[in-house]
Amino acid sequence: MLDFIISHLLYIPFIVLNVFIIYKIIKDVLKDDKGKNDDDDDDDGGIFGSDKPVLDLPPGVSLPIASKDLVLNE
User: Fold this and answer.
1) What is the CB-side half-sphere exposure of residue 72 using CA atoms within 13 A?
2) Alpha-carbon distance 59 to 10, whole Å?
3) pLDDT (0 to 100) of residue 19
4) In whole angstroms, how far apart are CA 23 and each of 10, 17, 26, 65?
5) Domain count of the chain?
6) Quick check: is 52 in a domain?
7) 59 in a domain, yes or no?
8) What is the rounded radius of gyration, in angstroms, for the C-alpha atoms of the chain?
9) Residue 70 is assigned to a structural domain of this protein
10) pLDDT (tens digit, 0 to 9) for every residue of the chain, 74 residues total?
11) Distance (Å, whole) CA 61 – CA 65
12) Is 15 helix (H, G, I), strand (E, B) or coil?
């Protein structure tokens, strides 16, 4: 093994670089800030739930009237 390392001097920096990259990946995956759910905060933004949506319809267009009769397409 020592002969291989001596003949291939870039082997040690390659191993060190790989260990560093693996460390950074594990650190980023296990970081608590990225997995935090921000929906609990009361700040500006997000979608507010309401019973009826507010539609911005052009003039002359209205919402369809729900009929109880079944309409078949011809």
Assistant:
1) 1
2) 72
3) 97
4) 20, 10, 5, 61
5) 1
6) no
7) no
8) 31
9) no
10) 788 888 888 888 999 999 999 999 998 888 766 556 555 555 555 566 666 667 788 888 877 776 666 666 65
11) 12
12) helix
Residue 13's domain comprises: 2-33
Here the tokens at position 69 are 């009769």
Count of positions (residues) in the chain: 74
Place of tokens 């997000």: 46
- Given a contact cutoff of 8 angstroms between Cβ atoms, the answer to whether 38 and 32 are in contact is no
Q: What is the pTM of this model?
A: 0.40
Measured at the CA of 19, the angle between CA 24 and CA 29, to 5 degrees, comes to 25
Classify residue 66: in a domain, yes or no.
no
Answer yes or no: are the C-beta atoms of 45 and 39 closer than 8 Å: no
The torsion angles phi and psi of 23, rounded to 5 degrees, stand at -60, -45
